[in-house]
Amino acid sequence: MIKSNMNGMDIVEEALQTWPVAQTPAGFSGQVLQRIEAVQYAKLRFQFTWLDYALGLFTVSATFLAFFVWKMLPDLFIMQLTYRLFVLWNVAEYQTVLVYFLFGIGGFLAFILFTAIMFAFPIHIVKKSTVLS
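RESULT FIELD:
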């Protein structure tokens, strides 16, 4: 039977569906078949390492250190920094650079967020192995 809308894989799939199923050998028990189907994979356990604690401590302490340094800066320095950023933002040649820089920072933060979400909720793909003889 020739079908015009079937591709190569559909033909193979149809041939496999119509192929006669071989009988199980006489010495092959049902318990063996059940053990093959019920293969258990080792469950992964999440464990914190020293690096996890170190990175967390560094992140928290860097945030507080930045806040402390910002509060310790003299008012004149903060006023000059604000003025220079304002001037830089209003110069036409630097506006595109600043916009690209802000989009780059936003893209980087979005990437970090996406990576954290993918790490927190991984997609488990389990493939069943079939033995053809």
